[in-house]
Amino acid sequence: MHTIYFDHNATTPVHPDVFNAMEPFFKEQFGNASNLYRLGVDARYAVEKARAQIAFLINADADEIVFTGGGTEADNLAIKGIVAANGKNHLIISGIEHPAVKMTCEYLEQYHNCRITQLPVDKNGRIDPRDVEKAITPETALVSIMLANNEIGAIQPIEDIAKITRFHAVPFHTDAVQAAGKIPVDVQTLGVDLLSLAGHKIYGPKGVGALYVKRGVQLIPQVQGGNHENGRRAGTENVPGIVGFGQAAELALHELPQRNQHDTTLRDLLWEKLSQLPFAILRNSPATNVLPNTLNVSIHGINAREFVRAMDKESICLSSGSACSQGKTEPSSVLKAIGRTDEEAAAAIRISVGRMNTREDVGYFIETITSVIKKCRGI
Questions:
Q1: Nearest to 286, CA basis, from 176, 156, 154, 148
Q2: What is the pTM of this model?
Q3: Which tens digits make up the pLDDT trace of 82-95?
Q4: Can 4-12+256-377 and 16-251 be said to share one CATH topology?
C-alpha cells in the first residue's frame, strides 16, 4: 500500500518540473548571483526570472519581491521591519494567526515595548472588519491578518480590511503562505502593503520564501551583512531554492483552476463520507470562505495525537493541528477561538488534500478510519 499523504498544509512534495528546474543549480550552474563572471551572471538571471515568476503569481512588480529563507522569515521581516521604520508601537492581529506572526509580535511586546491587540473571530474563524477599525489608534504601526488559516482554512475579508487600513494610513500585512496556489492571490485586488509567501506550500522547495513589499513602503532590514535583495535582506541568495520557488509559482498560476476544482471535489467527498459514519464528528472548518483543500474535524472520544500515529501505521499521513505547533500539548488556540471546548480541540484532526490525491485515497481513508477510531476508543 502506498502512503496516502493528506497533510499538504504542512508541506507539499516538490513538483517534478520544479526539481528539474533546480537540479542544474546544484551542479554545473553553481555560481554566486553576486559575481560578475558568467557563472554569476547566469545565477543572477535565474534569480531575477524567478522573482518575475513569483511577482506574476500575485500580480505584483518584480522589484516588489524580496526573497527570504521561508514564510516565517518573511513574516518577521514584515512586522519587525515596519515597526522599526515607523517608530510606532501598536500591533493589531487576529486571535488565530500563525505562530510566525503571533510570536513575532509577542517578541516585540516583550523586548521593544510594543502593545498587541488580538481581535476575536466568529464561529467560522472570520474577523469582523469593523473590529479592526475600532482597534486602530494613532500609535498603530501595523495590522497583520492572515489571508487563510492553516488549521481550519478560513479565508479572511482582506479586501474590506485593506480599505479601512488605507483610510487610516496604517500599513497592512497579510500572511498568504497557506492561500497562494490554492486560491487567487492578487495584491492589487487585496489592497495589502506586505504579503508573505513560502515555496514549500506550493510544491516548491523548503527553505525559501518571499515578502511582497508594495513600492513606497518603508521597511528596515532585519538581517545585516550585505546589499542583497536591494538592501532589504542580506545573505547570499539560495539560487536553487529560488529557481524552484519561481517554477512552482508559475505552475501554481497555470494550474490553479484545475487544482482548485480537484481539491474541492476531494474535500467535499471526504466530508460527505465522514458525516455518514456512525460516530459523532464535528466539522471545524467553515462551509464557505474556506480553502478548497482543507477539512478540520473533531472526532468524539479520540485523542488526536494518538489517532494520527495510528493512521500512520495504516500508511495515511494527516495532522492533529498546525505542523508548527505539533510539539505542544495544550488545545489549539484556533479551535478555542471559534468556540470549541478543550475536549473537542483535543479530538481534532486536519485533512489537507493535494494535487496527487485521488478518490481512491478517500475511499481507503474512510475504510480505515472506522477501525482506527474503534481502536483509539478501546472498543
A1: 154
A2: 0.96
A3: 999 999 999 999 99
A4: no
Predicted pLDDT of residue 175: 98
Q: Which of 105, 114, 324, 376 is catalytic?
A: 324
Reported confidence tier of residue 379, pLDDT bands at 50, 70, 90: low
Give the pLDDT score at 2: 87
Taking alpha carbons only, the member of 229, 220, 251, 191 closest to residue 63 is 229
- CB 100, CB 159: distance < 8 Å: no
Q: In the chain, where are the structural domains located?
A: 4-12+256-377, 16-251
DSSP structural state of residue 28: T
317 is catalytic: no
In 3D space, the residue among 142, 140, 139, 132 whose CA is nearest the CA of residue 80 turns out to be: 142
Query: Which CATH fold would you assign to the domain 4-12+256-377?
Result: Aspartate Aminotransferase, domain 1 (3.90.1150)
| pLDDT value of residue 330 | 81
Q: Which amino acid type is present at position 63?
A: D
Fold of 16-251: Aspartate Aminotransferase; domain 2 (3.40.640)
Kindly give, in sequence order, each residue whose CB lies less than 8 Å from that of residue 363, ignoring residues fewer than 6 positions away. none
Alpha-carbon gap, residue 94 to 101, rounded angstroms: 10
